[in-house]
Amino acid sequence: MQEHFTISELAHEFDITLRTLRFYEEQGLIEPERKGRSRLFSKRDRARIKLILRGRRIGLSLTDIREIIALYDQREEASQAAKLLDLLLERRRQLEAQRQDLDAILAEIDTLEAHCRSVSTRPD
Fold it and tell me: Which of 61, 103, 104, 114 is a good FRET partner for 75, with 20 to 30 A between their CA atoms?
């Protein structure tokens, strides 16, 4: 595996925009090496991008992701795991509540559809 990656390589690999990578850099989540106007990303940056995208995909905030990365940097694996577990449990609770809301909405739509079908097929 190569030691350094360009911004274009990582954007292509992770199917994200250059702007997204620059934003993560501005937020201090990744720290590419600067060579003139170019950025060179390390394996560590690549791993962080993977973690950031995974966290975003499951709905974690950048603040939450930053905390996990900070614990990782401090080599606090147990603390990192505990923090991540807390975040995952909270996210699961939120998603299950949303699923209940969606199920209720879908049931209401089913009722309204059935009513509309019965009305539209009645002879006048």
Answer: 61
Pairing of strands 4-6, 33-35: unpaired
CA distance 113 to 52: 41
**Cβ atoms of 24 and 34 closer than 8 Å:** no
17 contacts 11 by C-beta, under 8 angstroms: yes
Segments of the chain with pLDDT less than 70: 1, 122-124
Burial class (CB in 10 A: 0-12, 13-18, 19+), 32: buried
Residue bearing tokens 């940056």 = 45
Only one residue has tokens 């905390």, namely 67
Are 57 and 47 in contact by the 8 Å Cβ rule? The answer is no
